[in-house]
């Protein structure tokens, strides 16, 4: 009788396979594959070679948790050629005791951790040998995969790029901040897969949830839900107040890596705290890690339409001060993500970019999640399509309606603005740090017939009351650059478009606000009860907001809302104008000292000047960069910094990966919260 075939060793060829599967950024210590492709392994036998006439070899791949019933076990034989519609294996070479095999995974496979076993049968006797484990991800390089993206530059940007930018500020003054996505850092892929088992869907019905682990539409919706912790053991707890004493301020984070690791190491307890750009960026990390092309999006003047009537109402009292009389809100900016996939669950025409919003705002299907909603459906007003298309449509298209509230409680509509919501929808451009404007993907040109037709299609029953045509116009102005630490100068321009005198009252109010538009505290006020405009006259009134007044309540978002109200005494005509101003923090200048080479110690010099008219205390520079720093975060404390004083600190770091990398620096102290700076560094490979 022939001696049984026995496996001595297995070489999973991690280096060759990972590179072939565009997964080399995960490293070569383990096998990471993308579905819909083949991989090669080598098996060494102990006593003798494989004899096809006498030996029968088959394989078992298994994924999931067998004890929960949420698992899949697939058995397939060794053959002479590969097919591309099922799990199968073929001989590449059979030399001596070494057998080289090629194994193919179908493009519809479930993502997750897999074990690979070989069954060797000789004359009726079978033995099972464990050949190892691997991770299987979605494959945007495979044309048969539902996440296929046909442009290599976009795949490199939206799947392989582990660093990027988030946008914030106002639609008139757009700022950017660097973010470390870090999807290839050690252990992150395991955390992202672990996240799936913490969803409410999995906890409620593991078997049903697991059965859909091959569907990117389903997976992306799950990610939208579990990035926030509102309904499950999700990652981040939101906080839109100004007390972060029980956690970390949302602006403190420079990347997703420490957030994901903190969640994992704490036993899946939520990380405190996040706001929209943190939720979006962490979702981007997870989705890119799992193999779904994803990009960060910022929408300026983003509507939160709780009443679902495609209107955002703003109320003002007779003194021109904003009133909090509605559940609706308009965020100065709001962040979400887009992910790329086909939509076989919908009629043809809705493949491509899908909006996914992990910030917990409204429930969808009983949980706090949003999307995936097809971008094409949003643009065309097809709000009946899943998932959550009406909500996203309102975020970029709602009308902004202003009301004057009299002392007796009665209300009068002042104006309707069709164009304010959904401005400069932005993402990082492919292959550069430039901003790409995507507004045209979300809606037709403001004021165009297509734009109004789409709006009316989305809500045919909407019947906004009309307003009489104004005989005056009003406009608020401020300079482009408004440095934090200085008095804020603004002006209001009022124009009389008639040939008669206008006797008016002009009021100006300044309030510090959160980035979601909620007021914090009044920091400036001006009331001109006798404001006369001659025929066709244009009059400008200046308005100054003192640093000493706004510094008491300004948040880390540095935003001040200026509201101007004009009431004409004779006709009771009312005009309102509002402008949100983002104060600019000083730059953090970063200089790299030494030749940037992988595994060679380098120095970064950070320079900062105090812009405030008072001392800064308890300052700390935080430095990190995916592939740049061995530890996730380096800290450099500094002493008190006087007004106008410049400080320089140096930090040593050793790059771990070659290529284009981004160093991110955060400076935090008692009066300036989380100033950001970044520096692109090209690291040479160590063998050069």
Written overview of the protein:
With 688 residues, the chain is mainly beta. The protein folds into four domains: 7-137, Sandwich (Immunoglobulin-like), CATH 2.60.40; 152-458, Transglutaminase-like (Coagulation Factor XIII, Chain A, domain 2), CATH 3.90.260.10; 472-582, Immunoglobulins (Immunoglobulin-like); 589-683, Immunoglobulin-like (Sandwich), CATH 2.60.40. The protein has 13 helices and 39 strands. The strands form ten sheets. A nine-stranded mixed beta sheet has the order 1-3-7-6-5-4-8-9-2. The protein has a six-stranded antiparallel beta sheet with strand order 21-18-17-14-24-25, with helices on both faces. It is elongated.
CATH architectural designation of the largest domain: Alpha-Beta Complex
CATH fourth-tier homologous superfamily of the largest domain: Transglutaminase-like
**Total domains, how many?**
4
| Radius of gyration (Å) | 30 Å
Mean pLDDT: 93
**Stretches where pLDDT falls below 50 for ≥5 residues?**
461-466
The largest sheet, given as strand count, sense and whether it forms a barrel, is: 9 strands, mixed
What is the CATH C-level name of the largest domain? Alpha Beta
Q: State the total count of DSSP E strands.
A: 39
Structural class: mainly beta
Report the principal-axis shape.
elongated
CATH topology tier name of the largest domain:
Coagulation Factor XIII, Chain A, domain 2
Name the strands of the widest sheet in spatial order: 1-3-7-6-5-4-8-9-2
Portion in helices = 10-25%
Q: Helical stretch count?
A: 13
Kindly, what is the distance between the CA atoms of the first and last residues, rounded to a whole number of angstroms? Answer: 56 Å
Strand content: 35-45%
């Amino acid at each position: 009788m022939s001696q049984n075939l026995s496996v001595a060793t297995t070489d999973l060829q991690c280096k060759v396979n990972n590179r072939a599967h565009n997964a080399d950024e995960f490293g070569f210590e383990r096998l990471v594959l993308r579905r819909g492709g083949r991989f090669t392994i080598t098996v060494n036998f102990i006593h003798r070679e494989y004899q096809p006439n006498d030996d029968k070899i088959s394989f078992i791949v298994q994924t999931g948790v067998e004890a929960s019933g949420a698992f899949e076990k697939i058995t397939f034989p060794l053959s002479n050629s590969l097919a591309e519609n099922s799990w199968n294996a073929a001989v590449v070479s059979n030399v001596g005791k070494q057998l080289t095999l090629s194994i193919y995974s179908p493009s519809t496979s479930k993502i997750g951790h897999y074990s690979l076993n070989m069954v060797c049968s000789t004359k009726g006797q079978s033995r099972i040998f464990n050949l190892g484990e691997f991770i299987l991800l979605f494959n945007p390089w495979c044309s048969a995969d539902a996440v296929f993206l046909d442009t290599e530059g976009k795949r490199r940007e939206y799947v392989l790029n582990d660093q990027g930018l988030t946008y914030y500020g106002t639609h008139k003054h757009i700022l950017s901040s660097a973010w470390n996505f870090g999807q290839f850092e050690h252990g992150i892929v395991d955390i992202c897969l672990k996240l799936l088992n913490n969803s409410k869907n999995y906890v409620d019905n593991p078997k049903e949830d697991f059965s859909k682990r091959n569907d990117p539409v389903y997976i992306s919706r799950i990610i939208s839900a579990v990035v926030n912790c509102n309904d499950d053991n999700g990652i981040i707890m939101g906080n839109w107040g100004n007390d972060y004493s029980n956690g970390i301020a949302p602006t403190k984070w420079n990347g997703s890596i420490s957030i994901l690791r903190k969640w994992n190491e704490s036993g899946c307890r939520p990380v405190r705290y996040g706001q929209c750009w943190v939720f979006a960026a962490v979702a981007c990390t997870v989705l890119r890690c799992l193999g779904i092309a994803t990009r960060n999006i910022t929408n300026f003047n983003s509507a939160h339409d709780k009443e679902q009537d495609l209107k955002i109402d703003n109320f003002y009292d007779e003194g021109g001060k904003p009133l909090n009389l509605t559940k609706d809100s308009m965020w100065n900016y709001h962040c979400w993500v887009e992910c790329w996939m086909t939509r076989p669950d919908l009629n043809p025409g809705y493949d491509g970019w899908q909006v996914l919003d992990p910030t917990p705002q409204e429930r969808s299907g009983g949980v706090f999640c949003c999307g995936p909603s097809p971008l094409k459906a949003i643009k065309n007003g097809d709000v009946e399509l899943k998932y959550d298309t009406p909500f996203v449509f309102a975020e970029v298209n709602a009308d902004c309606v202003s009301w004057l509230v009299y002392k007796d409680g009665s209300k009068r509509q002042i104006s309707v603005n069709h164009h304010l919501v959904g401005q400069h929808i932005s993402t990082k451009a492919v292959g550069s740090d430039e901003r790409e404007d995507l507004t045209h993907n979300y809606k037709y040109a403001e004021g165009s017939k297509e734009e109004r037709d789409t709006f009316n299609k989305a809500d045919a029953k909407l019947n906004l009351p009309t307003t009489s045509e104004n005989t005056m116009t009003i406009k608020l102005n401020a300079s482009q650059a408004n440095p934090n630490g200085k008095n804020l100068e603004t002006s209001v321009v009022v124009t009389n478009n008639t040939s008669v005198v206008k006797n008016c009252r002009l009021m100006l109010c300044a309030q510090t606000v959160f980035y979601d538009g909620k007021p914090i505290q009044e920091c400036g006020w001006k009331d001109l009860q006798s404001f006369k405009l001659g025929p066709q006259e244009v009059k400008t009134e200046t308005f100054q907001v003192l640093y000493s007044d706004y510094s008491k309540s300004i948040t880390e978002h540095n935003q001040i809302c200026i509201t101007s109200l004009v009431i004409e005494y004779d006709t009771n005509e009312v005009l309102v104008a509002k402008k949100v101003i983002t104060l600019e923090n000083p730059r953090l200048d970063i200089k790299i000292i030494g030749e940037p080479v992988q595994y060679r110690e380098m120095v970064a010099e950070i320079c900062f000047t105090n812009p405030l008219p008072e001392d800064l205390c308890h300052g700390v520079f935080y430095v990190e960069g995916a592939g740049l720093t061995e530890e996730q975060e380096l800290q450099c404390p500094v002493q008190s910094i006087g007004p106008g004083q410049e400080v320089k600190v140096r930090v040593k770091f050793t790059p771990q990966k070659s290529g284009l990398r981004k160093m991110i620096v955060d400076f935090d102290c008692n009066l300036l919260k989380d100033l950001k700076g970044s520096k692109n560094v090209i690291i040479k490979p160590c063998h050069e």
